[in-house]
Design a protein that fits this description.
Shape: elongated
Largest sheet: 5 strands, antiparallel
Bound molecules: zinc ion
Length: 181
């Protein structure tokens, strides 16, 4: 192929599949410039889209309880009694199984920071608070986003409660924390 034809070929697949042109040049320069033998397998660009099911495994009940019952569950070690939220299938101290225990959804901020800079996905939310919350009855911390009008009201030691969204999908964003008045 002539140079301008090769450029047209790159443009065609760049527009068709959004493949960066530098990738096309890297992968197809030899073919288009005639270096590959006539009998060699001919490769052409294509695109694959994949839908798949992501399994939440042994944490599944935690997310079902959020979606179906607006309830936060912790996982309690059957040996040492430590309670984890987010839940764990096994205790990281004694490696024993855990069992489900319902929590009230109240807790306290153990660490927090105000975000004034972020990626484009969250830029409309700044300033927002990222906090580690210890739920009552648990021995672990949960990283979470707060929703609060005045970020100066939130600090270490602030009591918070979980608020569930009306539309829930079975994900960690089905609830958020608000300071208790
Ligand atoms: Zn344990």
């Amino acid at each position: 192929m002539k140079d301008h034809e090769i450029e047209q070929w790159y443009s065609y697949y760049h527009e068709k599949f959004k493949i960066p042109k530098e990738y096309l040049r890297r992968d197809y320069e030899a073919e288009l410039s005639g270096k590959n033998p006539m009998e060699a397998p001919l490769e052409i660009p294509d695109k694959m889209e994949i839908f798949f099911k992501y399994s939440l495994g042994q944490q599944s009940r935690f997310f079902r309880e959020l979606r179906e019952n607006k309830k936060i569950f912790g996982a309690k070690c059957i040996k040492c009694g430590k309670v984890y939220c987010p839940p764990r299938a096994n205790c990281h101290l004694c490696y024993r199984q855990t069992e489900w225990v319902p929590l009230e959804g109240n807790g306290v901020i153990k660490a927090c920071t105000v975000q004034y800079y972020t990626t484009s996905a969250f830029i409309k939310k700044v300033p927002f608070i990222c906090a580690y919350v210890q739920l009552d009855g648990t021995d672990s911390l949960m990283m979470t986003n707060m929703e609060v009008e005045d970020v100066s009201r939130v600090k270490v030691g602030t009591r918070v409660k979980a608020v569930f969204r009306e539309e829930r999908t079975g994900s960690i964003t089905d609830f958020y924390f608000r300071p208790v008045e």
